[in-house]
Every structure is written in C-alpha cells, then in structure tokens.
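Batch manifest line 148
LIGAND: D-ribose
JOB: complex structure
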Amino acid sequence: MKVALGCDHGGFVLKSEVVNTLKKLGADVIDFGTDSEESVDYPVYAQKVAHAVADKVCDVGVLLCGTGIGMSIAANKVKGIRAAVLSDTFSAKATKQHNNSNILCLGGRVVTPEQAAKLVTIWYTTEYEGGRHQKRVDMITEIENKNL
Ligand code: RB5
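JOB STATUS: finished
ARTIFACT:
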C-alpha cells in the first residue's frame, strides 16, 4: 500500500519510528515533510496528505503533530477524508473496523515512538468490516456532500 506521510515540528519526534514501522509492514511511504524540528504550520502538511489520499495518489495517510488534533481537524476538511486521532490500541483497531478511517493522526507530545509504532501497526493491519458500518460511513459521505 502507498502511505502518504506528513508531520510538523511537534510530530517530527515520531517520524523516523513511524517510517521504519510502515516500511517493515511493506508500505511504500511517500514523504510530504517536514524534515526537522523547525517550526512550520501543520495545516500545510495536513492538506498535502489529505489530497494525496482523497485523489487516490496514496491509499492511506499518517499525520503527526504535537497532539494529532490539529492535523485531524485540517485533514477532515477535505472531502473523502476520515482522519482519526489515536492514542490507545482499542481505538486503533476500532476506527479501521468501524469508521474505515483513511488517515491516522498521532501526537508527538502525547505518545512515545514505541507507542506510535504499536498504534501504526494495529491500524495499518486491521481491515474495515463493512456490513452494518457501511450505512454509517455512507451517512458521513452524505454530510460531506451537503456541506463541503
Ligand atoms: C505546534 O506547536 C502544535 O500546535 C501542533 O503540533 C499541533 O499540536 C496542533 O494541533
């Protein structure tokens, strides 16, 4: 799978561990930056990654900032994006099974690189369940179609 990866200075601390984890899982990682702890604006990276996923240049995306929250808010403004902020393993599995989330957001000031590796692994390897969840995901798409 092709994975779009983006981060700001707050998420940079997780970047190398996340890239290594994704590569070990067999992912083809497309890096949209940033490349240091120098201060940058997270919406820039959220938008690049969200468009790569929405335009089907990449299959899924991973966004890293201080909390994961700013990245998720920005990414979710792009039609077709279901970005989920994670810090626990239960949600990592459930958001793929139930929400078919297509972008994972993590906070470099919230989780350690080791926790990030675990969350990325669970999220990346869990399949969407479809079935009863599809109706609800379709309802999210309807909200987008009305409002975006
Ligand atoms: C940057 O200081 C910080 O605001 C950003 O990384 C992120 O946490 C925003 O949600």
